[in-house]
Write a structure and sequence with these properties.
Layout (H helix, E strand, L loop, with lengths): L9 H10 L1 H21 L4 E9 L18 H9 L5 H10 L3 H8 L5 H5 L15 H11 L1 E4 L6 E7 L2 H40 L3 H22 L6 E9 L8 H23 L14
Helix pairs in contact: 2-10, 5-7, 5-8, 8-9
Length: 288
């Protein structure tokens, strides 16, 4: 009758590692050499960050002007609660910042062409050439992260690139083009509304009708005034683009220990698979 073999002890593990010490050291050296080659072949990447937030202005007409002065307080409260501030424009800013409409305008700028070619992870690789807005939009959605800042309405844009100067320019241009795109569209629509309201006021003689049209016209002229001031419309820069002090990739503090441990473990497993050495458990029961 054979006794049951005991569980391996810490002493057994230490003995196995001592027997396999040459294999483990060889694997560790191979892992460190691979980490060194990794660091030499990788192109350092810097992290560029910018924080944007919603503007503080009202941009759409107050529809309560459509109702008479004797409207109930509850009705006026409900109507005013539906009046949009800057949230809808800022949500649109988030939605289209990395979309094809903004990408097509970025592609038209020649100063970005050299920056795209420098965007590479390895020294032997080549950067992308974007000939279609859809490809650039896919690149921006992949490389530019848009995430909330805590529980605030602000958003943090993060981008990684080998050239910090290009990263700053890209994030700032992304903001300028997106806000300018929304501003231009709102400006055109506001001009059309003002023209229609002025024409409607000339055609009507009813005092109540003219009062409602006057209220709507004042709202649209307020929007036109804001757009004429050349101030941020949909979003405002809370913190300009800034660059990390050191490259964030590759991280030598992670790569060297990780590859060294992996190499040592592979060396130990290789020693075990070779069938060399002694792997007898201390205190193993012998057959009776």
């Amino acid at each position: 009758m054979k006794g049951r073999a005991p569980e391996p002890s810490l002493r057994d593990l230490a003995g196995w590692c001592w027997d396999a010490r040459r294999w483990i050291v060889s694997g560790w050296c191979a892992g460190m050499a691979l980490a060194l080659l990794w660091g030499l072949a990788a192109v350092p990447q810097y992290r560029i960050t910018m924080i944007v937030g919603p503007t503080t202005r009202t941009g759409t007409p107050d529809i309560s002007a459509l109702f008479p002065e004797n409207a109930s307080y509850a009705l006026e409260y409900v109507l005013r609660s539906f009046g949009s501030g800057d949230s809808s424009d800022f949500m649109r800013f988030e939605a289209i910042a990395r979309g094809p409409a903004v990408s097509s305008r970025l592609m038209a700028a020649e100063e970005f062409q050299a920056g795209w070619s420098l965007d590479r992870r390895w020294r032997w690789s080549r950067g992308d050439d974007f000939f279609h807005p859809e490809r650039l939009s896919a690149y921006l959605n992949k490389r530019v992260r848009l995430e909330p800042v805590g529980h605030t309405p602000m958003r943090r844009l993060t981008y990684h690139h080998a050239d910090p100067a290009f990263g700053r320019i890209l994030l700032r241009a992304l903001y300028d083009v997106t806000d300018g795109y929304i501003r231009e569209e709102i400006k055109n629509k506001t001009a059309e509304r003002i023209g229609w309201l002025r024409g409607a006021m000339q055609k009507t003689a009813d005092p109540d009708h003219r009062r409602m049209l006057t209220g709507l016209l004042m709202e649209q002229e307020q929007v036109a005034m804001i757009l004429a001031l050349n101030e941020p419309y949909a979003a405002v820069i809370a913190e300009p683009p800034f660059v990390s002090a050191k490259p964030v990739w590759p991280d030598a503090r992670m790569i060297f220990p990780a590859l060294g441990l992996i190499g040592g473990f592979i060396g130990f497993m290789g020693y075990a698979a070779s069938g060399r050495g002694r792997f007898a458990l201390s205190g193993a029961l012998q057959p009776a």
